[in-house]
Design goal:
By secondary structure, the chain is α+β, with helices and mostly antiparallel strands. The protein has a five-stranded antiparallel beta sheet. Strands 1-8-6 form a three-stranded antiparallel beta sheet, covered by helices on one side. The two termini are 12 Å apart.
């Protein structure tokens, strides 16, 4: 059986181009009469173009670099590309939520002032819950006019609505429910979240990467055994990206309640995944 060089390595800096193969040698016989009739200016232009494109058997720097860095592959080998992924699960250790205040007033200044007074109480509650300053970030402040619409009349402004929202990161999961309740009790009338994450996910990602590689190797062996071949070596490995998809955020309503129970929270687990693309060389 005649073996073929793998197509992925078919390009080589030492392989002459089509222009070079077809170009006459300097030691060839004297030019034919037709070649003598070629204008010197055109011949010079063609020679310059050949030199500029590197088609006179002179490998370009890029080709030379590729020749130096390309992984050696046996001419009788068969290349197999395998894509594999793996997942690991971890309990989240941080939660992110948003809290804010929305108020309405007859004029814009009154709306902003009332909002600021209520929002200061919310910020004080966040601080009292033990949330560090670095874990609190304003996500939006807005002021909008409120309109009354009537038939055959232009919209009329009836008042203004002011809102202020902050994102809060809770690192002590045991205090998450109490923090939510404290926000509602302090005057926050908009609360969204929480979303759960893993603060330091690299160890979990590494575990997923190792599992993905093992899966790729097992799959390559399966193909090799089916073909009566063996896995010679790994030619290349490419990571397709690591992801930490969290659970769907839970939307919470802020309600002033006299109940003594904390808001129930179920963090669940987060699944982290890694994908690898591995090229193997198979052979006898």
């Amino acid at each position: 059986m005649t073996s073929h060089r793998p197509t992925v390595f078919s390009m080589s800096a030492s392989t002459p181009s089509a222009a070079t193969q077809g170009a006459p040698s300097r030691r060839s016989a004297a030019p034919t009469p037709r070649m003598r009739r070629l204008p010197q200016s055109l011949a010079a232009a063609m020679l310059g173009l050949a030199l500029a494109t590197g088609s006179l058997a002179m490998p370009s720097a890029a080709h030379a670099q590729n020749a130096q860095t390309a992984a050696p592959v046996s001419t009788d080998g068969t290349l197999l590309s395998v894509v594999a992924d793996a997942q690991v699960s971890r309990a989240p250790d941080i939660a992110t939520l948003s809290a804010g205040v929305v108020v309405q007033a007859a004029d814009a200044n009154a709306a902003m002032r009332a909002n600021a007074a209520q929002m200061n109480k919310v910020m004080a509650a966040i601080k009292a819950a033990g949330i560090a300053d670095r874990d609190v970030q304003t996500s939006g402040v807005s002021l909008y006019p409120q309109y009354r619409y009537a038939e055959n009349q232009p919209p009329a402004i009836t008042g203004y609505q002011a809102s202020n929202t902050v994102n809060v990161k809770v690192r002590d999961m045991s205090r998450l429910a109490a923090t939510l309740d404290a926000l509602a009790a302090s005057g926050a009338n908009q609360i969204n979240g929480p979303t759960f994450e893993i603060d330091q996910p690299e160890d979990a990602y590494d575990e997923a990467r190792v599992a993905a590689l093992a899966k790729a190797q097992a799959r390559a062996k399966t193909y090799a055994d089916a073909l009566g071949l063996r896995v010679r070596k790994i030619v290349s490995i490419q990571e397709g990206g690591a992801q930490q998809p969290g659970p769907v955020p839970m939307r919470m309503k802020s309600a002033m309640s006299g109940a003594a129970d904390d808001t129930p929270i179920a963090p669940g687990e987060n699944t982290l995944s890694a994908t690898v693309s591995v090229v193997f060389e198979l052979g006898r």
